[in-house]
Design a protein that fits this description.
single chain
């Protein structure tokens, strides 16, 4: 079921969303200052490619104030809007029973899009 869900996800918008995140990641990586944010955007793009079976976990390293500061800057300069887009798409997909699994994946991505620093993605193939 996960494989079929991921294939349907890719066909109906997951690939386009991932390309958008990868393009944004490439644009941010062109500056030295944007590299930490580019890595996080790339992480979200990977989740957009294969969301069914993927798990978002806290990273193993100890929490620190730098991670909090980076998440605050992320939220102010785009994380809010990315998370809001995923929440709206998740709500629209959750209107029907058939769309519930895809809506759930959007809600999972919304949580990561709001504060990605300090999170790790484990892809389940």
């Amino acid at each position: 079921m996960r494989f079929l869900g991921n294939i349907i996800w890719l066909i109906f918008g997951g690939l386009e969303a991932a390309i958008g995140y990868f393009t944004g990641s490439l644009a941010m990586a062109m500056t030295i200052i944007g590299i930490p944010w580019a890595m996080q955007t790339f992480k979200i793009g990977l989740l957009c490619l294969w969301p069914f079976g993927a798990k978002i976990e806290d990273a193993d390293f100890p929490p620190g104030c730098l991670r909090i500061l980076l998440n605050i800057l992320w939220f102010i300069f785009g994380g809010f809007w990315a998370g809001l887009c995923h929440v709206v798409c998740g709500l629209l997909l959750s209107i029907t029973i058939i769309g519930l699994p895809w809506g759930k994946q959007h809600f999972k991505m919304a949580g990561l899009a709001i504060a990605p620093f300090g999170k790790r993605i484990t892809l389940g193939f």
